Amino acid sequence: MGEAAKRDDPYLAGWAASRLALFACRLVLAHNRVLYPYHKWLLRTVAEVPDRPDDFVDLLRRLAIERTPAAAEAVVMSLLVFREWPQAPAGWSTQFMLDSEWNWLDGEPPIDDL
């Protein structure tokens, strides 16, 4: 598969958009100390929390429909300007690798399973 085909893969774009939306919502829910309700109620619950980025739900819906880098960046930027989030000591890319790719070393579940 060529590089252009990989970039335009609708399955991959959909998977990335859904993962980003899921973890963005989980950040907002954790900030509000609200339990993750499961996928069916996720957007509804996020829409009801008192403290979230402006237009957050609209940005998530745009991401789900468009599945573009611009829509993804809008969601991420809304989170970054919303508040100062705790920083991983080793940096986010290293922490992601530890949580999702090297987790087998210490037997911890992947971050996606939590």
Describe it for me?
There is one protein chain. This protein is mainly α. It has two domains: 3-83, no CATH class; 85-114, no CATH class. Helix content is 60%, strand content 0%. The chain is built from six helices and no strands. The protein has helices at 3-7, 10-31, 42-48, 56-66, 69-82, 92-100. The longest helix is centred in the first third of the chain and has 22 residues, at 10-31. The protein starts with a helix and ends in a 14-residue tail after the last helix. 11% of the residues are buried.
In short:
This protein has helices at 3-7, 10-31, 42-48, 56-66, 69-82, 92-100.
Q: Globular, elongated, flat, extended or rod-shaped: what is the shape?
A: globular
Oligomer state of the chains in this structure? single chain
Give the C-alpha Rg. Answer: 15 Å
- Helix tally equals 6
Report the mean per-residue pLDDT as an integer: 87
Poorly predicted regions are: none
Largest sheet: none
Q: In sequence order, what are the helices and strands, one letter per element?
A: HHHHHH
Distance between the termini: 33 Å
Total number of distinct structural domains: 2
**How many β-strands, per DSSP?**
0
Tell me the β content. Answer: under 5%
Structural class by SSE content = mainly alpha
User: Residue share in helices?
Assistant: 55-70%
